[in-house]
Task: inverse folding
């Protein structure tokens, strides 16, 4: 079977995965652009619920980062920077899009992931 | 509606074992059904990704069934159960959407081969599929049980021989609607 992965992963604030009517459907934009999604915990969760979830997100991001996958941040999430710092990963390029078009444009200018580069 | 806690790879096929990604990123057939029916989506962590890495081998349940992986799954299950409990306390309905055939995320079908090990050379195919839950799903059910919570489950069936998207869709819809498939 041919592996179809894109080597591109977006950390995405919950409101772009579960948008209210009229809000930006980030999940649809990312899916159409062939990006994978790592959803960040809903802002409504208390710290004792969100903290452990963010720690797991960070641990997985560390693995993607180490293997040269491209990743970006769509939106924001309190506690994410600290969780990433804990595993030695910087906050990636970020956008808080004002429109779906702006998000699409941001995706098109992202560099090719290291993991897709031809071996030397 | 309610909240569907979905396997990580349903939103991010990049987390799959190499040669296992069915699409570039988001597996839309499941997402589309959930959204069309008004369910919130919450993504669970991938138990295998952080434990065995992106360059892991394909593996069956027995290969992952170690004390260390159980401990890892228990940690993840505690984090996910915290979120599920918060939803249940708010009176929201919760379903779990796993991946059939997965050694960790299967909900009714997992993989089994007690002899598998050593240098990987087994041919493609699915003789390892067997009834049962993957290890993470088992640990999550145990953690939810300790909290007095039960959830309905559905499984994405791409890795199962004879996979039929219409059948998968009907199965997921029946779980969302809480009727017998």
Result:
């Amino acid at each position: 079977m041919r592996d179809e992965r894109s080597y591109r992963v977006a950390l995405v604030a919950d409101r772009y995965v579960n948008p209210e009517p009229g809000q930006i459907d980030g999940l649809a934009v990312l899916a159409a652009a062939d990006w994978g999604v790592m959803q960040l915990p809903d802002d409504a969760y208390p710290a004792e619920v969100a903290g452990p979830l963010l720690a797991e997100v960070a641990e997985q991001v560390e693995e993607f980062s180490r293997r040269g996958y491209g990743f970006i941040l769509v939106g924001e999430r309190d506690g994410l920077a600290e969780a990433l710092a804990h595993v030695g990963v910087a906050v990636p390029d970020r956008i808080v899009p004002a429109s779906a078009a702006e998000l699409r444009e941001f995706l098109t200018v992202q560099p090719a992931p290291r993991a897709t580069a031809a071996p030397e | 509606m309610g909240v569907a806690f979905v396997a990580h790879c349903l939103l991010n096929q990049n987390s799959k074992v190499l040669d296992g990604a069915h699409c570039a990123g988001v597996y839309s057939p499941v997402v589309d059904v959930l959204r069309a029916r008004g369910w919130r989506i919450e993504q669970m962590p991938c138990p295998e990704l952080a434990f065995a890495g992106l360059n892991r081998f394909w593996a069956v349940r027995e290969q992952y069934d170690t004390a260390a992986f159980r401990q890892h799954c228990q940690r993840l299950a505690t984090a996910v159960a915290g979120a599920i409990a918060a939803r249940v306390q708010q009176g929201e309905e919760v379903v779990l959407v796993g991946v059939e055939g997965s050694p960790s995320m299967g909900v009714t079908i997992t993989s089994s081969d007690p002899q598998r090990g050593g240098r990987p050379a087994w041919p493609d195919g699915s003789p390892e599929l067997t009834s049962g839950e993957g290890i993470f799903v088992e640990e999550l059910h145990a953690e939810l049980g300790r909290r007095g919570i039960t959830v309905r489950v559905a499984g994405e069936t791409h890795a199962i021989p004879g996979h039929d998207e219409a059948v998968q869709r009907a199965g997921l819809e029946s779980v969302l609607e809480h009727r017998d498939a």
